[in-house]
Amino acid sequence: MIFVDDLRFATRSLLKNPGFALSAILALALGIGANSAIFSAVDGILLRPLPFDEPDRLVNVWETNTKRSIPKMIAAPGNYQDWRKQNHVFSGIGGYLQSTFTLASTGEPERFLGAACDKGFFDTLQVNPILGRVFTEEEAQAGRDGVVILSYGVWQQRFGGDRKIVGQQLILDGRARTVIGVMPHGFEYPPKAVMWAPLGFDNAMATRRDFHRLRVIARLKRGVSLDSARAEFLAIGAQLAAQYPDLNKDESIIVMPMLEDVVGPIRPALLVLSFAAIFVLLIACANVANLLLARAAFREREVAIRSSLGAPRARIVRLMLTESVLLALLGGAVGLLWADGTFKALIASAPPNLPRLDQVHIDWRIAGLTLAVSLATGILFGIVPAWHLSKADLNAVLKTGARGSTAGSALRSGLVVSQVGATLILLAGAGLLLRSFYEIAHVDAGFRPEHVMTMRLAPAPYKYLGHADRQMELARGILGKVSVLPGVQSAAVSTDVPLLGSPFYIMRFEGRPPVTPSQAPIANFFAVTPGFFETMGMRLVRGRGFTAQDTPASPLVVVVNQTLVDRYFPGQDPIGKRLEIAFRTPPAWREIIGVIADVRTQGLDQDTPVQAYTDYLQLPSPLISILTPAITVLARTTQNPALLGPAMKEAILSVDRAQPVFSVQPMTEIVSQSVAQRRISLVLLAFFAVSALFLAALGLYGVISYSVAQRTKEVGIRMALGARQGHVLMLIQRQGMTLVLAGMGIGMVGAFLLTRLMSTLVFHVTPEDPLTFAVVVILLIGVGLTACYLPARRASKVDPVVALRQE
Fold this sequence. Notes:
Shape: elongated
Radius of gyration: 34 Å
Strand content: 15-25%
Number of strands: 22
Low-confidence stretches: 401-407
Structural class: alpha+beta
Distance between the termini: 39 Å
Helix content: 40-55%
């Protein structure tokens, strides 16, 4: 019953002071919501183990080439076979390549993501089917690979969970494959893969060392350390480089923990956001502490009167503690609601290529821990002043009248200083990201993405592999249909488009000293049809582009970018020079007929690589006998490109309805997705910085307001003795700005230290960017002046007579 009375009293007290209550609840809600959302993402992406048995023993194995500055490179099949034979540190090793499967259908064909892999792939992951079996070693061979394994999701959604699916035949990519197994629920590796077929390499492909196709995973033996595995594979790499110098010279092998390999690129951004979320929570707790301390100081007279009327000390402490705990609980409740909404917004805005995004969910344990921190803040800063007030000298407190005491003012000032310091750090970080994003947005991409529509299709190997004439005929048919659509200005076909990834091939130049494949320079390769440069809005610097006169019967031609010219033909006219893409015997030389301006193909924030463009209608790929490259269809339109999508897709299907169309998106969306990770980091950090700025301003305003209330009599005396309003205004603002400048000094040191963590997140901006820090300082001073001005202005308008009568 006593507890109910205390709760009622606390509720009435908070309702009588709605400004105080709302400020505290909002501060806690911001801190709890931000931390719960961000740390749930951090847990799901960085900390949660991979969904396999003993995941800490799983590694990825990559080739690397120091001469070409390629840190990670997928493996050549021949090298992979040697790794399997020579290693003593892995209990399992498997290879796979990401692939797609087209399922024949009565309507539009269905396309599924998947992988072609060997038996070692499943042995390494230690995952067994819930129905059927995995591949045998024999089924990995060409001609015996007519089997497939389905994911649980495909089995349920496409085949209704039919337990008789094992043994049935499906027509995938135009050939019959027998279903031999169904994987357990949740297994989708590589990410989003839902079908698995054998690699099906013939002997020639299985021994190639010049064609890098395989991603390799492995499982460390129990008792074998990562360092031991790395040392052994460095030795294997050195041995292979010496044994096959033409193909493996300057190449080595690196072994990376699988989880680290997957999440490594996103780790810096998440760590910075984690620091930001912690700062916001600390600022929120400091704000609540400041509010509770100020409120306790205001209530000294009330507590003294209660004590003089016989209220026990324990009763007084319990009343004030109940109020602070109630406040913390209300803030926590609102914070949990805010956390749920913030997390949903975070996931909705996250880029689709964010690793492990499908494994991220709100972690209520983290939310509970954050709530416990806020509750502890409420208890600590509720009970300490309550205990102090309950022991206060009644006569001394009553003599101070309505002025209150100065007890705790140093602590409140210290809390404000810390808030300002943390806020400056967050503002500096957000400013650096904003400057970086501005720089990226104003990078010359080398093309004009506006009014360009794109869509992809992967010509089925059973129909097009090794048939250059069929691939060219498909492209001609698509161009004929798409180019006549209403609103289409020009159309083109390309193996790839900028920012979506494209292959690198070795090349050599005619008339120069011979080079081996391992020594040869590399070029970012595109095969395009005439009209591609115009459709993409790319600028021809010299020479000409491709025309209808460039046919399979005419000499092979190539267009190169300015970077290639600067690197390999400095001070020379490259027109008429010849090079070869991918080595042949005899060489298939291509004449350089044009130079295109540099295009940012790998990312707006990445350096421009050497680029070579060949005519798709002369030869779709230099590796036509072993590759059927996917193609992108592009159209430049006079209207909104999204409106062209349905008609363009139907035009493509009318040429060959067995080839599914996917990745339908305007080129502007591709550009937007390429910077999506930077954008979400900027938005989140900016949100935290603005929240911190608001909370710091609120805390500063509260301290100065309390100080003004304490000094009402002093202000009255000063004005009665002739002090002007401006003098009083300056006096109060000086007090507040002293706290702001102290906090900025501390924050500046912290910002210079912590922004160095952002070195990988910024572009064309240094972590010590003077412009960013100058703007942050000006902004913080402006907000500080505003927060101080309002209570100072109120103080300067005090009537001396009224002030002196307060006693």
